[in-house]
Amino acid sequence: MALFVFDLASAAVLYRVACQTPCGRYMFAGMPETTIWKGTSSQWKNYKVYAAFLVVLALCCWLHWGKSMSPWIFLLLVPVGLWAFWSWLQVKSKVFTLTSERLVSNRGILTRVTDSLELYRVRDFQIVRPLLHRMVGLNNIHIISADATSPDLILDYLPITEDMGELVRKSIEACRAMKNVRTMDVVNEGHDFPPTDAGGGAVT
């Protein structure tokens, strides 16, 4: 018995071929949405807050044991500690979800806000790796789309080892092929009509 293994790139090719026919588009339109990846930003995003907490902790220890000050000096840690905990909770509560059709961002602690971006509306994306990010194995992904409410979406402080850039690219290709959509950047000057696609597919 032969064993076949398909990755997202293979799926994108199959989608592109099958979706050229009405039957193929109808078949893939009924496929359920599946989750490809789910995760959060790294806590390195709050390194300044955590560094401030450690500095205040060291200062309190020095004042208490070095200068014989009252143990009440450690109360200085309370506001800084609450700040650090709130920052940790903010990062932990912001969850990115990449599905076969959308990129979803859920954020908020007391009030939850959900931003949903259809993958076929993505025009381009950038992978940014500043020096500090590279030192700790992280990168940012800046997604540019044609969506009216969420034209830009940034997935920040993600591990490089997960290769999210390639995963996002393949997911976008597969979704566009499934929906028979291609992206075209058109500037209309003095026209009242929207851009069209000579190939018959939808244009975003």
Written account of the structure:
The chain is α+β, with helices and mostly antiparallel strands and 204 residues long. The protein folds into two domains: 8-17 and 33-41 and 96-184, Pleckstrin-homology domain (PH domain)/Phosphotyrosine-binding domain (PTB) (PH-domain like, Roll); 42-93. The protein is built from six helices and nine strands; from the N terminus they run H-H-E-H-H-E-E-E-E-H-E-E-H-E-E. The chain has a four-stranded antiparallel β-sheet. Strands 5-6-7 form a three-stranded antiparallel β-sheet. A hairpin with a 5-residue loop joins strand 3 (102-107) and strand 4.
In short:
This protein is of the alpha+beta class. It is 38% helix and 25% strand. It has six helices and nine strands.
Could you outline the blueprint of secondary structure elements for this entry?
Layout: H1 8-18, H2 22-29, E1 35-40, H3 47-66, H4 77-93, E2 95-99, E3 102-107, E4 113-118, E5 122-128, H5 131-135, E6 138-145, E7 152-159, H6 164-179, E8 181-182, E9 202-203
Parallel strand pairs: 8-9
Antiparallel strand pairs: 1-2, 2-3, 3-4, 5-6, 6-7
Helix pairs in contact: 1-6, 3-4
Rg on CA atoms, Å? 24 Å
Largest sheet: 4 strands, antiparallel
| Strand-pairing-aware structural class | alpha+beta
- Number of individual domains: 2
Strands, total number? 9
The CATH class of the largest domain is Mainly Beta
Give the ordered list of helices and strands.
HHEHHEEEEHEEHEE
The pLDDT mean sits at 79
Q: Specify the overall morphology.
A: elongated
Q: N-to-C terminal Cα separation, in Å? A: 43 Å
CATH superfamily of the largest domain: Pleckstrin-homology domain (PH domain)/Phosphotyrosine-binding domain (PTB)
- Low-confidence regions: 1-6, 11-28, 184-200
Beta-strand percent range: 15-25%
Helicity range: 25-40%
Q: Would you give the CATH topology of the largest domain? A: PH-domain like
| Strand order, sheet with most strands | 1-2-3-4
Looking at the overall shape, the CATH architecture of the largest domain is Roll
* DSSP summary: helix tally: 6
